[in-house]
Specification:
The protein has 10 helices and 8 strands. The chain has about 325 residues and is α/β, with parallel strands linked by helices. It is elongated. The structure holds uridine-5'-diphosphate and magnesium ion. Uridine-5'-diphosphate binds next to strand 1 and helix 3.
């Protein structure tokens, strides 16, 4: 009997967790030869998610939960969940049923066929707001042109992985985590399973535009330093042009005397250079901020409550925030 741990980040998902479990159990119950367990990660929900998880855990011995001291974000929730897995395979999926459990049997088949990972990708982005779709496609285009880590645009965080791949993911110990990139960075053989986008019927999306913008900037700065090189190259180019302009102006002044007009060109150049310098400092600042946050080496999450004493030995060691950044188990 092979074991599969399903990691489910939950933030204010009281409306849907029970339906999620029932639906997933119904599908997984039909897969012979596998034992499915659940690790729900309550990411500091302010609704009834935690009491519900406690109740679900009491009713079903294969349900486990972790609960954070506050909202640490989906990345932290996924990381905590992965750290507490011990199964031969691990599935990561959202609680809102936007990741159809019906894909799990196919994922199991792909892993049986010898692949390291079976990941879902949306075949359409229907149902997504126009502006979000546009920014999303801009982000992927920009990020992929900058970085060696090419992220498929329609990939979602719904995938089944081997233990080996999960351990590789956990070995990346950065505090500021960007899983979409990490999944690609660790390599391994991934098959893509397309599915039709499902609209959320229960609860609401937890993303704000500001949150997505931060996510996008983090995604780019986490996997490439090309923006730094771009501004350096741009600086070199500007210096070259300035030098020519300075020489030309000097010569012209020497030959033809001082020429008073020039307000417009002066203003344009000053504004342009000011803007460029500001932008460059901003880009450098973004990286400095990351160095700062990584250097503080704070735990990725702080655990307040869990039932995981019931899990096999090795899985327990991450049950405190302090241990949250420990190297993965061998
Ligand atoms: N989520 C989380 N912490 C957060 C935000 C979201 O654990 O701070 C979870 C959420 O409960 C859900 C998943 O991440 O299971 C995806 O969130 P959501 O459905 O809001 O995102 P969307 O599907 O709109 O991208
Ligand atoms: Mg969703």
């Amino acid at each position: 009997m092979k074991t599969v741990d399903i990691v489910v980040p939950c933030f204010n998902e009281a409306e849907v967790v029970e339906t999620f479990l029932a639906e997933t159990e119904r599908i997984c119950g039909q897969i012979a030869g596998y034992r499915f367990s659940y690790i729900f990660v309550d990411d500091g929900s302010r609704d009834a998610t935690l009491p519900l998880l406690r109740k679900m855990q009491q009713e079903n011995e294969r349900v486990h939960y972790l609960s954070f001291s506050r909202n640490f974000g989906k990345e932290a929730a996924m990381y905590a969940g992965l750290k507490h897995t011990s199964g031969d395979y691990v599935i990561v999926m959202d609680a809102d049923l936007q990741h159809p459990p019906a894909l799990i049997p196919q994922m199991v088949k792909e892993l049986e066929a010898g692949h390291d990972c079976a990941a879902a990708c949306r075949s359409t982005r229907d149902g997504e707001k126009g502006l979000r779709s546009l920014f999303s496609s801009l982000f992927y285009r920009f990020s992929n042109s900058m970085s060696d880590v090419k992220m498929p645009q329609n990939a979602v965080d719904f995938r089944m992985m081997t233990r080996q791949m999960v351990d590789a993911i956990l070995s990346l110990s950065e505090v500021e985590r960007f899983s979409k990139g990490i999944f690609v960075w660790v390599g391994f053989d991934t098959v893509w399973i397309p599915y039709e986008n499902v609209e959320r019927t229960l609860g609401t999306s937890k993303w704000s535009f500001k949150g997505l913008l931060k996510y996008a900037i983090d995604g780019i700065t986490a996997f490439t330093v090309k923006p730094l090189k771009l501004i350096r190259n741009f600086g070199i180019l500007l210096c070259g042009i300035s030098l020519i302009y300075i020489l030309a102006t000097l010569i012209k002044t020497l030959i033809m005397g001082i020429d008073v007009p020039g307000y417009a060109s002066l203003l344009c150049i000053t504004l342009f250079l000011g803007g460029t310098i500001q932008l460059s400092i901003g880009v450098v600042g973004e990286y400095v901020a990351h160095i700062y946050l990584e250097a503080k080496d704070r735990p990725v999450y702080i655990l307040k409550e869990t039932d995981l004493a019931a899990l096999p030995e090795g899985a327990k060691d991450a049950a405190s925030g302090e241990d949250a950044k420990e190297a993965p188990r061998a």
